[in-house]
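Box S1 | Example of a co-folding query
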Amino acid sequence: MKPKQLVLLASGSGSNVENIAKYFETASNITIATVLTNKRDAKVIDRCNRLKINCLYFNKQAFSESDCILNLLKSINPDLIVLAGFLWKIPEKLILAFPNKIINIHPALLPKYGGKGMYGNHVHEAVKESKDAQTGITIHYVTANYDEGAIIHQATTKILPEDKVEQIAGKVHQLEYEHFPKVIEGLLSKEN
Ligand code: GAR
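Box S1 (continued) | Returned holo structure for glycinamide ribonucleotide
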């Protein structure tokens, strides 16, 4: 049987991409068709080179002002499109073309700390500022609005009053590494 095709989108470091790639390295039924990035100098490109995974850079024109990425994705026919630290809004035409096949990970417990501008350390700074006793991750379906789709999975971690933003970020990343590949695997196993 043809392996399930995974497409990952990332804008930055790509540590989640690397973690997901390593998780599925020995899986014969799941393959990473390609990683897509919107940042020419993103660290994720180096990681993909090292891991020998296909990685393509695209710009706004290709993503939302033309059908270039839409057509590329249609040709791949992915079973799941995963936003792993991807910071651009997904154009409606992609959402319509791949219903319930695009998921995102958000580094907080949505619906808190979501929306435009809420990414990476901005989220952890807001969480710290609010003196919340816990934070976590949310894996959810992607809609045309930031961080609003149906929630698939959440996991929490405690925050100590003395935790700095970097420590909160570290705890959240650990949760991401633990849960994200398993959730992806679960979704792909439900697929026909
Ligand atoms: C992750 O923590 C992810 O949850 C977050 O960006 C980080 C990417 O880290 N995503 C968002 O903030 C989306 N709003 P990575 O590049 O090391 O995987």
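The pocket of glycinamide ribonucleotide is lined by residues 10, 12-16, 84-85, 105-107, 119-120, 123, 172-173, 176 (CB under 6 Å). The CA atoms of residues 38 and 133 lie 34 Å apart.
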